[in-house]
Amino acid sequence: MIRTETSLKRVSDFPGPLLRKEGAAHVFESKEALAEAEGAILERGQFTGNVRGWDRYGLQFDTPIGYRIGSDGSRTPLTYGEIKIRDGLYHVIPRSGPGQ
Predict the structure, then answer these.
(1) How far apart are CA 40 and CA 17, in angstroms?
(2) pLDDT tens digits, residue range 17-69?
(3) Domain spans of the chain?
(4) Would you list the DSSP string of 53-93?
(5) Distance of alpha carbon 50 from alpha carbon 56, whole angstroms
(6) What dihedral angle (degrees, nearest 10) is formed by the CA atoms of 39, 43, 45, 49?
(7) Could you tell me if 55 and 85 are in contact, meaning their C-beta atoms sit under 8 angstroms apart?
(8) What's the whole-model pTM score?
(9) Do the beta carbons of residue 28 and residue 94 sit within 8 Å?
(10) What burial class does residue 47 get, using C-beta atoms within 10 Å of its C-beta: 0-12 exposed, 13-18 middle, 19+ buried?
(11) Is the separation of the CB atoms in 83 and 45 below 8 Å?
């Protein structure tokens, strides 16, 4: 499997495109936090189903791995990580819970 560049948009240094497109952004604190969450999910994540054509694996963390930046600048801590996989490609997202 190959991680897509989409994952790098999920780092707190680069939330602009997500904020403009979606009105909010779920981001990791750093590239290191993304890499740590990615490794943990690949090792211990649970399959949560196929949603909108993506196989999803998730893992609940004890401490925040990232946060949601709202359009008003608010930041909500996120303790759930998810990997979305399709056609041998994947990306990692910090979330509040499994994708719906």
Answers:
(1) 27
(2) 555 555 678 888 888 888 999 999 999 999 999 988 999 999 999 999 999 88
(3) 2-95
(4) TEEEEEEE-SS--EEEEETTS-EEEE-EEEEEEETTEEEEE
(5) 6
(6) 100
(7) yes
(8) 0.79
(9) yes
(10) exposed
(11) yes
